[in-house]
Amino acid sequence: MKISAAALFVLFLVSSPVSASSVVTSQAELNWSGMTLTTTGSLVIDCCLPVPEFGLASSTANTTLGGQAVQSKTFFFSSGPLDWSNTAASSSYSNSDGSAAAEASTNNGFLQSHSLATTLSASVSRNSASTSAFTLADFDLSGHGTGAFTFALPYTLLVSVVSDGSNSFRDFVSADASVLLMLGPGVVQGGFAADSLSLNQTGPLVDSLLTRSGLLTVSVERNLLAVGTSFDVSLQIQTHAVAGVPEPSTLLLLGCGVIAVLTFARCGLASS
Asked: Looking at the domain assignment, is residue 6 inside a domain?
C-alpha cells in the first residue's frame, strides 16, 4: 500500500517524538535605594522620610498535569519593625512534561520578581508562573516655597525565550514584566508612571532577549509652605511566563490544509 507524501507529513506532525525543550523567563526590578527627588521653582525640601505601611510578595507556579503551588507573604507596619517591608515568596512545580518557578521579594524597597516556565517533552502541556510584589509607604515632606517636585526610581525589565532548536515548532511561549510607581492620595489623584515588556511566540521558536532599564518619574506641583504635607507612594512589579505544547488538533488542521493544497494543485495539473 502506498502512502502519499502529504499523509506522511500529517503522520509526522501527530506522532513524531519531538523534543520540545523551551525556557521562557520574565524579570522585573524596581529599586527605591536609587530614588532621586528634585524640585523646580522656589520649592525647597527640608525633609522627606518614608513610613512603611504595607508590603506584599506573592508567587504562583503550575503545570497542567502536575498541580499548583502558591505562596504569599504580607507585612503590616503595625506588626513589623520600623523599616521598609521585608517580604519574600517563592513557588515551584514540575513533572516529566514541564516545570514552573516563581519568586518575588520586597527587600527594604528593592522590589524583585522572577518567573520561569519550561517545557520538557513533546506531550501536551501548559506550564506557567506568575509573581507580584507591592510596597506602600507614607511620606512626610517638610519644606517651603512653590514649585514642583519629581520622584524618579530606577527599574529594569527582562523577557526571554531559549529553545534547544530540535523541532520546537510545536511549542508556544509568552512572557511579560511590568513596573508601576504611583503617588497619592493627598497630592494629585492618579499621578503615576509605568512601563512593561512582553514577548509572545508560537513555533518555530526563535531565541530572543528583550531588556529595558530606565527611570519611572512622577512630577507634582505643590506648595509646601512651612507645615509640610503627607502622601502615599506605591511601588508594584509583576511578572508572568508561560511555556507549553498545544493540543494535536491544531496540528491535524495544519496537515489537512497541506493535503488540500496538494490535492488542488494535482487536480490543476491534471486538467491542464
From this structure: no
Burial of 168-192, coded b for 16+ CB within 10 Å and e otherwise, reads bebbbbbbbbbbbbbbbeebeeebe
Chain segment 203-231, per-residue pLDDT in tens: 788 899 999 999 999 887 765 544 456 67
Beta-carbon count within 10 A of 37 CB: 12
CA 95/CA 24 separation, integer angstroms: 17
- The H-or-E segment that residue 267 falls in is helix 248-271
Residue 266 lies in a domain: no
For 11-43, how does the pLDDT look when each residue is reduced to its tens digit (9 = 90+)? 333 333 344 478 999 999 999 888 888 888 887
3-state secondary structure of 14: helix
Quick one: cell of 152?
Answer: 524618579
DSSP 15: H
Which structural domain range is residue 95 located in? 20-31+49-138+154-207+230-252
- Name every residue whose Cβ is closer than 8 Å to that of residue 90 and which is 6 or more positions away in sequence: 59, 71, 101, 102, 103, 104
Number of structural domains (the chain) is: 1
- Residue 96 is which amino acid? S
- pTM for this prediction: 0.78
Phi, psi of 270 (to 5 degrees): -65, -40
* Residue 133, domain member (yes or no): yes
Q: Where are the beta strands (DSSP E) in 110-228?
A: 110-119, 125-144, 146-163, 172-183, 191-202, 208-223
Whether residue 147 lies inside any domain: the answer is no
